[in-house]
Amino acid sequence: MGVSLTVSFFLLLFINLSTGSQVVTVDVTEAKQLLQSGHVYVDVRTVEEFRKGHVEAEKIINIPYMFSTPEGMVKNPEFLKEFSSAFKEEDRLVVGCKSGVRSLSATADLLKMGFKDVRNLGGGYIAWVDNGFGTKMEKPARGEEVKPNEEL
Asked: Is the pTM of this model over 0.90?
């Protein structure tokens, strides 16, 4: 078993034990079906990542779980507040990021907060793209250049 697989397993185990609720991770095919049946896709990547390309879904919102800083990635202190103002606890949600790590943590936090129908997108945006599912790129703001799929 590889080191990253072992670390991922223990991270998942820790999150499941610490939240009291088990995070449900779905693969991209199931996530696509959920989105087609009315679930909302919540992209927790940074705004910059989101603009460069994201899952194509009828209902989608970007609420960053972490921000990029010169010191590295830092958790968004307003994440839960922003999330609570956008959604009700009973809303049906699929949470995704680049590879499934940030969304796993975000999903665990949301379950702890009382959200009930929240699923983590296993493999994230990378798996979505690898499976050839639809993506969309946001139009750049005036004077801003966006390069497609740069550093997925």
From this structure: no
